[in-house]
Amino acid sequence: MIRPHQFRPNPETEADNAFQTPAGSTDWRALAQRAHGEVTQAAETLRKLGVRIDLFEDEGSATPDSVFPNNWFSTHPGGHVAIYPMFAASRRAERRMDVIELLKRDFRVQDVIDYSGLEPDGLFLEGTGAMVLDHQDRIAYVIRSNRADPVLLERFCTHFNYEPMVFDAVDRKGSPIYHTNVLMCIATDFALIGTEMIKDSTRAQEITARLAYVGRSVIDLTTEQIERFAGNAIELQGREGRLLALSQTAFDCLNEAQREIIGESARIVPLQVPTIEMAGGSVRCMIAGNHLADRASPRSQGDRQ
Questions:
Q1: CB of 10 within 8 A of CB of 88?
Q2: Contact residues for 191 (Cβ-Cβ < 8 A; gap 6+)
Q3: Which of 44, 127, 205, 216 is the most buried (most CB within 10 A)?
Q4: Is 305 within the bounds of a domain?
Q5: Do the record's keywords include Ligase (predicted)?
Q6: pLDDT tens digits along 206-217
Q7: Does residue 15 form part of some domain?
Q8: Tens of pLDDT along 37-55?
Q9: How many Å apart are CA 177 and CA 260, to the nearest integer?
């Protein structure tokens, strides 16, 4: 996780991120302080539940979206790390080698595949924002957008052994959903997905069938629930079992039946992040999951998402 010191919604990403809230005339210092506190509290809550959190500070003013590190790197079982090319120029400065060096120091890293050099060629793939990865069925679910180039997606899937499943999804105004991870979340025993936002109903049925293939319960979310970040959740491993981390905004819009299905598999952990959600992302975007094996133990650390 990255704790920002000068957070603000990024005007450079506002054009294609309908989940972003225009800040208008805002006290930027107060906004940044609230975001700093929300990350601090979220990290403390997860740590108390036994989740390892490596928390980095961002004190710069040129990286307004740094609180969302899952877009620029991802980790994978077997010791693999990927670094991604970012669509918005302001987001490219979020990549930081101290994060990669910590992974190499504390976990078993075999290789780092860096795709970021493809930015000058106009090829972008924004990590586990653009892709939602099913680690059990080896599927990479991807909404078509300017943040997920099909050529680069094919290259990633070849390198990391995933089958791409690409589809179109739009918001109420018919604009493409900017990141797949606001539409869906894949956990061990269930998946959250907003199928009514997928343009092709046949494709939506194919996706839900694949999600259910390994025995998951598929929880269909409404457009309103997606807009309230109910799809932007992440399954983590805590001291006493699996957790589903999501925002309080997301938790409040789930109905009792949906919460019951989730609760059968994972403890639901709502986190207060309303300020950060102004930037168009929520809890899933705030956490770059760790699938690497700990050097001190053969047991893997981090999330199971």
A1: yes
A2: 184, 185, 211, 212, 216, 217, 218, 219
A3: 127
A4: no
A5: no
A6: 999 999 999 999
A7: yes
A8: 999 999 999 999 999 999 9
A9: 28
Residue 20 has pLDDT above 80, yes or no: no
Q: Whole domain around residue 264: which residue ranges?
A: 2-286
The count of residues in the chain is: 305
CATH number of the domain where residue 17 is located: 3.75.10.10
Determine, yes or no, domain membership for 295.
no
CB atoms closer than 10 angstroms to residue 163: 12
